[in-house]
Specification:
Layout: H1 20-31, E1 33-35, E2 41-43, H2 49-54, E3 68-75, E4 78-85, H3 90-101, E5 108-112, E6 115-116, E7 133-138, H4 140-185, H5 192-211, H6 217-245
Parallel strand pairs: 3-7
Antiparallel strand pairs: 1-2, 3-4, 5-6, 5-7
């Protein structure tokens, strides 16, 4: 015998006005269906159904599909009409609305009859029927969460730019260090002020790196540049000692001398 549910013809009120018999009937109706991971509502399998069908007339007749309804959803100034199974949950409805609004299900807040509905609430149990009106809004907590994420991403981008700029400066100074190293290894002494100036510039970069707040990959890049700076400074310290041991090269010029040119005695006549 089919259970009969009596619903109010009005769209107002709440689910508390349902009779116990109607709620039980709704549970019976939903019990014959199952929700797949994709969100599709399908008929639940019953033990012995396959064997009965193969036995020729002894099986349980298949249940009819759940009726489909169209709900009207208001989202800001937009209006959406969404077709959904009458026994679906609000969580399943949110998945359908995500494709329409671009709002992730986790960021959605669905209200029906002035009350926010959770993902586990069922449309039929809450009294949602064909042409019922719902209100969709963005969850305030999700707005705050995205704001925090944007601030965090902005800090990461700022740190990456600062580290990248320092990396370019380190490249230039590292080239000068290699140039000085080649000169000293060839035995050519360089001015000590060149070495001390490079050390000072590198130490300033080290201070800049230390002042940058970095996390994750940015922190790894920061450590790489800090090690490069340290290696250049250590190399210059060694070169400074080696350069001090070199003798200054004095360049002298040897001039070639020539004999004085012969002079000719001229005879004078009156």
């Amino acid at each position: 015998m089919a259970a009969v549910m009596h619903r109010s013809s009005s769209d107002g009120g709440s689910s508390s006005g349902w009779s116990e018999a109607a709620a039980a009937a709704a549970g019976e109706e939903r019990a014959g269906w199952e929700v797949r991971p994709s969100g599709m509502v399908v008929q639940a399998r019953e033990e012995g159904a396959g064997a009965g069908a193969g036995g020729g007339g002894g099986g349980i007749p298949p249940r009819p599909p759940p009726p489909e309804i169209t709900v009207r959803v208001k989202y800001g100034a937009a209006r959406h009409e969404v077709a959904v199974s009458s026994i679906a949950s609000f969580g399943e409805l949110k998945k359908l609305l995500a494709a329409r609004t671009g709002l992730l299900p986790a960021d959605q807040k669905l209200t029906y009859k002035g009350k926010e509905r959770s993902n586990s609430d069922y449309l039929d149990v809450c009294g949602v029927k064909n042409k019922s009106k719902l209100v969709l809004a963005e969850d305030p907590t999700s707005v705050e969460r995205r704001y925090i994420e944007r601030q965090k991403n902005a800090k990461i981008e700022s740190a990456n730019r600062a580290i990248g700029a320092i990396a370019l400066e380190v490249d230039k100074l590292a080239d000068q260090v290699r140039s000085i190293e080649k000169s000293i290894n060839r035995g050519s002494k360089v001015a000590e002020v060149q070495i001390t100036t490079l050390i000072e510039l590198l130490m300033r970069l080290a201070v800049k790196l230390d002042s940058i707040h970095a996390e994750g990959d940015s922190s790894s890049q920061k450590n790489i540049q800090a090690k490069r700076v340290q290696k250049c400074v250590e190399t210059l310290d060694v070169l400074k000692i080696s350069n001090a041991r070199l003798q200054n090269v004095i360049v002298t010029t040897k001039w070639e001398t020539f004999d004085a040119p012969a002079t000719t005695q001229w005879e004078l006549f009156d």
